[in-house]
Write a structure and sequence with these properties.
The protein has 9 helices and no strands. By secondary structure, it is mainly alpha-helical.
Length: about 190
C-alpha cells in the first residue's frame, strides 16, 4: 500500500498509534492519507477552493487534537470523514448561513413536468452532478450533500444543522426540483446509456 512506504508504519493501526504518540512523521503520513479524498468532500460543502482548504485544515486540527479518543482504530476512516463533514457544516453555520435571510423561497420552482428526473439524477455523470449541486443555494447544497451523497437521514441532518427534520426534507425536495430545472437548462432531459 502506498500510504505505508515507511517501514515504521505497516498498518493503519500502527500509524494511528504513532499519531497518538505525537510522532511528526506519522502525522505527516496520516495527513497525506486523507488529504485528496477529504479535500474533495470539503469542496462539495464550500463555495470556493480556498474555503475548502480552510475547512480541511480546521478539520485536521480537530482530528489531531481528538485522535486519542479513537478507541476502535478500524473505524478511523469513518471517524475522520465525520469530523470533516461536521467541520464543513460548522463553517457553513458560522460564515454563510445568514445569506439565506436574503433569498426568497419564491425564486425556486415548486414542480416540474417530468418524473423521469429522479432516474436522471441517480445515473448522471458525477462531475456534472457535483457542478450543478455547487450552483445551489447554500442551505439546499448542504442538505443534498448530506442526504444524497453522504447518506445522512433527515433527522440526522436536522441535528447537524440545528434545523427541524421537516426543514431538511423541505429543503431537499426544493433542491431536487431546482437540480432538475438546472438539468433541463443544460438540455439533459433523459438518461442515455453510452
Amino acid at each position: 500500500m502506498k500510504f505505508f512506504r515507511s517501514k515504521k508504519y505497516n498498518s493503519l493501526t500502527e500509524l494511528v498509534l504513532a499519531c497518538q504518540r505525537l510522532e511528526p512523521s506519522a502525522q505527516t503520513i496520516f495527513y497525506e492519507r486523507y488529504k485528496a479524498k477529504l479535500t474533495g468532500i470539503c469542496l462539495r460543502y464550500a463555495k470556493t477552493k480556498m474555503e475548502a482548504e480552510d475547512i480541511f485544515q480546521e478539520a485536521f486540527i480537530k482530528v489531531f487534537k481528538n485522535l486519542n479518543e479513537v478507541k476502535d482504530i478500524g473505524s478511523t476512516d469513518s471517524w475522520v470523514k465525520s469530523v470533516v463533514i461536521r467541520t464543513a457544516i460548522n463553517y457553513y453555520n458560522r460564515t454563510t448561513k445568514d445569506q439565506l435571510l436574503h433569498s426568497s423561497i419564491e425564486d425556486f420552482p415548486k414542480e416540474l413536468e417530468s418524473a423521469d428526473y429522479d432516474t436522471i439524477i441517480e445515473q448522471l455523470n458525477v462531475e456534472v452532478l457535483l457542478e450543478i449541486i455547487n450552483q445551489l443555494p447554500d442551505s439546499y447544497r448542504m442538505v443534498v450533500n448530506l442526504h444524497l451523497i453522504d447518506g445522512y437521514t433527515h433527522a440526522e441532518i436536522g441535528q447537524i444543522m440545528s434545523i427541524p427534520d421537516s426543514t431538511s426534507r423541505s429543503n431537499f425536495m426544493r433542491a431536487r426540483h431546482l437540480l432538475m430545472k438546472k438539468l433541463q437548462e443544460k438540455g439533459i432531459t433523459q438518461y442515455e446509456n453510452s
